[in-house]
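To assess whether the prediction recovers the assembly geometry, we first specified each molecular entity separately, as shown.
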Amino acid sequence: MSRIEHCFTQLRRAGRTALIPYVTAGDPSVETTEALVHALEESGADVIELGIPFSDPLADGPVIQRAATRSLDNGVRLKDIFAMVERIRTDSDVPLVFLVYYNSVYRHGAEPFLRRCAALGVDGLVIPDLPLEERAQVQEVIADLGLDIDLIPLVAPTSKERTAQLVEGASGFIYCVSSLGVTGMRERLSASVKDLVEKVHRHTAVPAAVGFGVSTTEHARTLKPFADGLIVGSAIVRQIEAGLDAGDSVQRVQRFAAGLRQALDEEPGRTPGVR
Amino acid sequence: MIQAELSSKFGTFGGRYVPETLMPSLLQLETSYTEAAKDRTFQDDFRRLVQEYSGRPTPLYFARRLTEHLGSGRIYLKREDLNHTGAHKLNNVIGQVLLAKRMGKKRIIAETGAGQHGVATATVCAMMGLACEVYMGAKDVKRQSLNVFRMNLLGAAVHSVSSGTATLKDATNEAIRDWVGSVEDTFYVIGSVVGPHPYPTMVRDFQRIIGDEAKEQIMACEGRLPDLLVACVGGGSNAMGLFYPFIQHPTVGLLGVEAAGLGLHTPHHAATLTLGSPGVLHGMLTKLLQDEDGQIAPVHSLSAGLDYPGVGPEHASLQESGRAEYMAVTDSQALEGFQLLSKLEGILPALESAHAIAGLMERAHRTTADQVVVVNLSGRGDKDVTAVFEALEGEGAHEPD
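The predicted structure of the complete assembly is given in tokenized form:
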């Protein structure tokens, strides 16, 4: 059983919703990211999403674009991120997912990239610009080599009748895109997000996590009755950004994540064993 | 004239590497385009507009003095510079905006580099009464302030993009980001044979009118097919438009000319096919200028229309199969081509098209006297007069972007 699957199984038994924070690797340095991963795990993160910085992140809004720019401007390379994951894995078993644009995978070579991820203990991949129509090229490598990596599909509000196909054969979790547009904080969550999650649930037993715009404790309370997990990106990165001058990014993120954790765990919780 | 051949790949290149949010719309676009391409009314509307509004067919002009000067070949210029708004860009925009209207879209977005595609899109939207918003890199907004004003006069809103390198690549990113959020009512008019399928195919089909006309015209002038076609390549739509109807004729040589900027030995160029490697950008798998980690490289060309780190996937495929050949000329060579054509033929070419002239100058010694050459004069040079003035006054010491 993969780390992600194991994690969601435990959560389901306990009637809890997964907290999946996102940070861009190397923002502003790999040392900070490494400290953040440990801090997030302590604050109750269940899965941690690490963004591989890309020069042209077309699915991301301004906050995460700035994070990628900070990382790249500081000279962070893919090899530094791999080395960081190797260090993290010496004392942490927290499930790790890479959010990676396809060019980083393709340029490295899909097979060596995926082998490396598996060897280092990266548990899943979210590739935002690799839709169903193109994903066979990655899926086949994973299957052929028998790698223990979940290729996490994204389901969008526009997916509609494609949903069944998108989640077919999926493992890990399903990434439910809450609304149209790029990543970034939104004041209000789209009213249709519940329908989206329910549709995913009808087609698969794989857990459904909601991302894009999830940024407040209020959102956490709204989502937890029906979502198996929530993915928080830009709101976390904003905390990193706010702490850059004072050098207290890690503390800020920790406090923020703990707040989300508390909102997810307070009463009324979910019914254990049921989704 | 318009023909849909809807394979999503050109050899190993092409595809659609976009967020899932956009996929249903790309599939819808493919269906709508296929239907439109078969629909007589749509084709008639397209033909009528390119004739009555844009002024087609554009002439094929025998460049007598250029031919004499180069001392070899018989050189013809396909005068795309005589289209309304001064370049081949309008052919594609007319096609796409007609399609947008047919699909019931209310809002048009576009990316632009120097502003040519932005102006063409704003022009057609004004004529068809559609709302138009154009994304343009902040650097280009500054360098091309008159084009921004032209777009405003035409009723379009221009968004200045300051992320990344603040040029065409980033304007394209921002247009795609807009589209991810507005896909239900918005049509994205891409300006070249780039982007996710079906754009490279669709744009090529709208531009092939250049090659279809040239074929008829050269048969009338020379009674035979040309030996060589020459066109500049940034994204590559004017080149694809000219080349496409000739691909099936193996005796016709195809030469694409890229921007070598300050030189191929420097990092300041945009010679994607010449020096690039395969990768994924803006929804397509193609040749890119990038580093070992796949980060897209900053590029440079004096010509804003060639200042792009990617290229149309069909060109990457034509290069791989050996059917077309690609070379690169520097800013200085392009400036020579610009001046030569101005003095010998009384035609100021766009700096983009001046690269094609410069490519021809470099290849002239390989051409024999009886060979027939068609050069795509993709746009006119009025827009570049200031840039050329500054470059020549600066004695060819061009600063990179």
